[in-house]
Write a structure and sequence with these properties.
By secondary structure, the chain is an alpha/beta fold. It has one domain: Rossmann fold, CATH 3.40.50.150. The protein is 32% helix and 23% strand. Strands 3-2-1-7-8-10-9 form a 7-stranded mixed sheet, with helices on both faces. Strands 4-6-5 form a 3-stranded mixed sheet. β7, α6 and β8 form a beta-alpha-beta unit. The longest helix is centred in the last third of the chain and has 18 residues.
Length: 261
């Protein structure tokens, strides 16, 4: 299947922070989220765009198989996950979860119905790698793609990069989520990115594209700081945040990996 130039996938819709931006940039959007309440809210919020066929919302979890899955809804809505390991991480941070049964699907199934997007944003709390693996073996792939990297496991971060490499991506950027609200859009001059948004994409992302080896090296440095002060498992994670950010700026936030070819 060939890439549809005006199509974006927002995998991890949440409250529509990113979908709103994509729609403002005149893209069609396929938005996917496992949380039924969040999908309902966004259906009301974007009713005009849905009725004009500019937006389709799919209330399913992306997994490695279609069927029914146990999904954990968290007190922090952005931390909903399929991964029990992430549930324990969240509980250690004081954010509790409850489980519900939801429908799941594969990224391949969605692509077969809606086409290959120009850009695919993935932020689904521990299941990003399942989405990336689902692209393996396909002839085409998104021109641009982003996925949230792990803040607890260097191995998981490197695995994600290796899958992107297998998919044929050759240029990469590491984008700090905690600086997204400072980004500027080249087309929407007055637009301000809200909290929990993923920010710009493609050539609008800040910084220079880098090689796989350089990005792996940077992630190793980031994870070294995570081990010292990181938000989840750092030895000094209870250290005063103001001082921590000054001493270890890379180890106090989350990052997205952007890729192109």
């Amino acid at each position: 299947m060939s890439v549809v130039d005006n199509l974006i996938y927002d995998i991890g819709l949440h409250r529509g922070e990113d979908t709103d931006y994509y729609l403002r940039k005149k893209y069609r959007v396929i938005a996917i989220d496992a949380n039924t309440d969040l999908c309902r809210q966004c259906t009301e919020k974007f009713s005009t765009e849905i009725n004009s066929d500019r937006l389709i919302i799919i209330n399913k979890a992306i997994s490695d198989s279609a069927g029914s899955k146990k999904f954990f809804i968290n007190d922090q809505s952005i931390w909903g996950t399929l991964d029990p390991g992430w549930v324990k991480r969240n509980e250690a941070r004081g954010a509790m979860s409850r489980s519900v049964q939801i429908d799941s699907t594969t990224i391949g199934e969605i692509l077969s119905h809606h086409g290959m997007p120009f850009y695919m944003k993935i932020d689904i709390e521990g299941a990003d790698i399942l989405c990336l693996r689902g692209l393996l073996g396909l002839t085409d792939k998104p021109r641009y793609i982003s996925a949230e990297s792990s803040a607890t496991s260097l191995r998981d971060t490197l695995e994600q990069l290796d899958v992107l490499d297998q998919l044929g991506y050759t240029k990469f950027k590491i984008i700090p989520q905690h600086k997204v609200q400072k980004q500027q859009c080249s087309v929407l001059a007055d637009y301000r990115f809200p909290k929990d948004s993923s920010g710009t994409f493609g050539e609008d992302t800040p910084g220079e594209w880098q090689s796989l080896d350089k990005v792996k090296k940077k992630y190793r440095a980031i994870h070294f700081e995570y081990r010292i002060i990181g938000p989840n498992n750092g030895l000094l994670r209870k250290f005063p945040r103001r001082i921590a950010k000054f001493l270890f700026p890379r180890g106090t936030g989350w990052y997205d990996t952007h890729a192109t070819y």
